[in-house]
Amino acid sequence: MANGVFNISKGAFVEKIRDGATNVLVLLLQANESEATLVDRATVASMLAEGGTTEATFTNYARKTGITGTVTVDNTNDRVDVDMPDQTWTTAGGAANNTLTKLIVAYEESAADSGRIPLTHHDFAATTDGSDLTAQVNAAGFGRAA
Q1: What is the DSSP string of 1-28?
Q2: Could you give the CA distance from residue 143 to residue 123 in angstroms, rounded to a whole number?
Q3: Domain regions of the chain by residue span
Q4: Interior CA angle at 4 toward 117 and 59, to 5°?
Q5: pLDDT 10s digit of each residue in the chain, 146 long?
Q6: Secondary structure class of 78 (helix, strand, coil)
């Protein structure tokens, strides 16, 4: 499950995923501000423009976009789990490497970072070295509404 949910999406991320079948994106950070400050960011643009948060730059890095999120209603436990497929960056790094800190799951309301809403953040400690890099956020999903 998520290490934290951005304030802007608390109580809303399930509907974002339900309404936008392929509007999930993933980006990796190589540095980030404190968690208490990070969760106050309302867009990907504001997250990257303020406080020293920087996106990954390793060789073969690109944001993962067009991801289909899945919503599973669990009536037995009175909750909803939201998941997405594992994401792999092939030959991550090698020529340029990063030490990574966070994985961000966001929702695309528009193509600009000012219209991309961060949903959840996850600790993601990895250092690229030219090997494939796979992110499985959590076997039970990247978020839960309970």
Answers
A1: --SEE-GGGTTTHHHHHHH-TT-EEEEE
A2: 14
A3: 4-135
A4: 65
A5: 667 766 555 567 777 777 666 888 999 999 999 999 999 999 999 999 988 899 999 999 999 999 988 888 888 888 888 888 999 999 999 999 999 999 999 999 888 999 999 988 999 999 999 999 999 877 778 888 77
A6: coil
